[in-house]
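Run folding on both entries below.
>entry_1
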Amino acid sequence: MRSFLAAFELMRAEIVFRQSEIAPVLETIARDCSGAAGKFYGLVRDKMHTGMTFGTAYLSLAPSLYELGLTERDVDLISEVARATGRFDAMTQGELFCGAAARMTEEISACAAECAQKGRVYRAVGITAGVMLALVSI
């Protein structure tokens, strides 16, 4: 998810400040973003080279986002941005990217908090199991 956050920031900067079209932006993302976002947008770029528009290329590849380990909520958020990309003026797209980036940051923070909580639970279970094993072996 963090790679998609970086990709959205890059898209926003390229579209709003440089007034770039989507094809060169996808080239930059595929080259500069590591992880799932770089791979995914590289595939979208390749589909666009065959004559597809961004929207149709995205829609044809959207199911592969689940294979990258993203949740339904993550895919919905990415799809929301994809539906708006190229359809509105640069400032409106920039606002959408900012809103999506804020929601992604919240999602990442929530996942980190949940991970920390589960980590404490698993650590406690592990210690308890170790103590039980020690008591049984004595």
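>entry_2
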Amino acid sequence: MNPDDRQHHYVQAVWPKLQALGDRICDAEEREDERLIEHGYGELIAFYESQTAAGFWHPGLTEALADFTEDPAAAVEYYRKALAEARELEEQTHSILIDLAERLIELDELEEAEACLREGHSVAKQAGDADYVGEA
């Protein structure tokens, strides 16, 4: 799949599904309903696996999975994968880098976290993303 087709599939098919799944998980978190949170996360994993099994990957898909992964070590692996995917497609990396840094801090990987924050801040600044500049 070429990058344009990949982006088209992401925008048309993947992003709407991610929005719906993310909304369900967030709603369940607001209600503090662990059963629904787990169910929503299970749906997200199943969707991710179905897309990757079909040969589709995209940093937005992998980053979304990382965002909702509670286990910091597992989340770090997804963020690293999303970062590699974003770099391959020459897409923005600042949100991935900054979120990766947060999870690395949870794992006491402070040196790598600091490097991610520095790079994330720089890329966010270049992109003009004030929210992420402030977060970094």
